[in-house]
What we know:
The protein is an alpha+beta fold. It has one domain (2-257): Phosphatase 2c, domain 1. It is built from seven helices and ten strands. The protein has helices at 43-61, 81-103, 153-160, 165-170, 207-210, 215-224, 228-241, and strands spanning 2-11, 21-26, 31-38, 111-120, 125-131, 135-140, 143-146, 190-194, 201-205, 248-257. A hairpin with a 4-residue loop joins strand 2 (21-26) and strand 3 (31-38). The relative contact order is 0.22.
Amino acid sequence: MWRVSSAVASHPGLRREENEDAFCVRGDLGLYLVADGMGGHAAGEVASRLAVDAVEAFIEDTRHADVERTWPFPYDPKLSLDGNRLKAALRLANRRIAAAVVRDQALKGMATTAAAVLVDAGAGRITVAHVGDSRIYRRRAGQLAQVTHDHSWVGEQVRAGSLTEADAKRHPWRNVVTRALAGGDDPEVDVAQLDGRQGDLLMICSDGLSGVVGDDTCQAIITAAASLDQACADLIAAANAGGGPDNITVALIKIDVD
């Protein structure tokens, strides 16, 4: 049986008046989610909040599901039940954003990224899903490694070998995402299953952290912190020390095995 502990913190950064990030940390559901809104004029804040609320509600509604419960989306037999739940939840969030734009045309153009972790502590399973460039990392044996691939123009160029990670951080198109929850067609959602071991730690963050603070620095901060709450605070402080150009949200989830 796993014991799961968590912490989360969010900050608008030093150059933005509004915080367009949103998050959900529900240990009772095993759901941990970060969304980074886009669109400006508070529309990004609306998109991220709509997405988080939609995902949280769907995961809660299906928490006791023992059948193929993904309506209105087809069940994908290649994925686990939890994988299907997350995929359907994110697609439902996309439709909620579309409906909001229909109701209020002033919201047209809003969108959000989303990165989610679903932990089944009883079964010892971790499912992750994401759309956009909000990231999920896993720290194991003192090493922090990204487990998602950025759906961004620079991320695609890095994977193709056309840009280095350092170049990507400075590139003028570094904020251009190639996938998002934007109210259009049902988005492609990347879903993966992770194994869990004693002491594993998962980090979910918006690019206000990952775009400013390097992976090695994040790892050192987490290792040095006396608690998960302190680690979140120190990570945000590091992003702000680096200029705080964007909203910053980070959630940490630690796995202990009885």
